[in-house]
Structures are given as structure tokens and as C-alpha cells.
Amino acid sequence: MRTIESAERMDRTVKTAIPKEGKYLTFTLAAEEYGISILKIKEIIGMMSVTSMPRMPDYVKGVINLRGKVIPVIDLRLSFRMPARDYTERTCIIVVEIEGQVGTVKIGIVVDAVSEVLNIKPEDIEETPAFGTRLNTDYILGMSKMGSGVKILLDIDRVLSADDMWVLEQAA
């Protein structure tokens, strides 16, 4: 029987084994910069009409029809418990492909603005700082030091919890 401590140690080992260097699409939410590996990005589209779904959490905006495929859309700001904001001409949807319980799923994530694609070297990435044992930071691959700032590198497969994924898979 595995203890919680050994499970956490194993999870950290797996997390540090994920290659973190490479190309990242960077984007903003509020005043913070985030990055997702471009290998997970399928496309970037401007904000479009989203069909609402009943009885969904606030951060699930609904679904879009993208070239005949129904894709669930979440507002990453609301998923991260940031205050809501009106969409602007810079607001866009990044369509990502993530591993769900039923296989690979395409999901649209609403972000404030897309910035650029960066090639991030291993020496520019630091481990996620420890915020205490009760805070879950498994969805953060690392912190990229860029100039005087920091970009938060996301493991998009872990940004959503298993419960969130179940809800989104039902919407698709």
C-alpha cells in the first residue's frame, strides 16, 4: 500500500522527468504571463460566438463549432479563480489537445491575449517553488526566467482536474 508521502514523491519524480525546454506559446491572463508547449497547441482563433451549456460551472463558457467539430471552451481566468473581465479584440481562444479519461480531447481556452512563441532553454527554467503542502501546483511545469520577469509554464494536461475533464468530455 502506497503512502501519501511516497505518492507525492513519485509525482514529483514524474514531473521533473518531463522535458521542459522547448518552444512555448506565451499568453497573458491579468498581468501574468503563461506558456504552453506548442506541441499541445492545435490553433489560435479570435473570440467567436460560444453556445452556452446548461448546468455547467462558471468557467465553462460552452461549446463552439470549429469546422464541424464541437469543442468545449473554458475561460482560463475563471478556472484560475481570477476576476472576470470583458472580452476585447485581443481576447482569443487557444485550441489545445489534452489527454482526458476517454483519450485525447480538444478544448478551447479563452485567454486575454497571445504574446509570442519562445524557445525556452533548460537553464532558464526553475522548479515550481514550494507554497506549502496544501497547495496543488502539479499543473505548473516550471517557472521560466525571462529578463526581469517570470513566465509560468503550464502542464495543460493537468490544468483541469479529473472532475473538470469529466464535465468537459460530457459537453463535447
Layout of SSEs?
Elements: H1 4-17, E1 22-29, E2 32-37, E3 41-46, E4 60-66, E5 69-75, H2 76-79, E6 92-100, E7 103-111, E8 113-120, E9 125-126, E10 140-146, E11 149-154, H3 156-159, H4 162-171
Parallel strand pairs: 2-11, 5-7
Antiparallel strand pairs: 1-2, 1-8, 3-6, 4-5, 6-7, 9-10, 10-11
Describe the structure.
The chain is of the alpha+beta class and 172 residues long. It has one domain (4-171): CheA-289, Domain 4 (OB fold (Dihydrolipoamide Acetyltransferase, E2P)). 19% of the residues lie in helices and 44% in strands. The chain contains 4 helices and 11 strands; from the N terminus they run H-E-E-E-E-E-H-E-E-E-E-E-E-H-H. A hairpin with a 2-residue loop joins strand 10 (140-146) and strand 11. The longest helix is centred in the first third of the chain and has 14 residues, at 4-17. The radius of gyration is 16 Å and the shape is globular. The N and C termini lie far apart (36 Å). Residues 1-17 have low confidence and may be disordered.
User: In percent, how helical is the residue content?
Assistant: 10-25%
The domain count comes to 1
What is the class in the CATH system?
A: Mainly Beta
Distance between the termini: 36 Å
Find the CATH topology. Answer: OB fold (Dihydrolipoamide Acetyltransferase, E2P)
CATH superfamily: CheA-289, Domain 4
Question: Any key phrases for this structure?
Answer:
alpha+beta; OB fold (Dihydrolipoamide Acetyltransferase, E2P); five-stranded mixed beta sheet; 11 strands
Condensed summary:
By secondary structure, the protein is an alpha+beta fold.
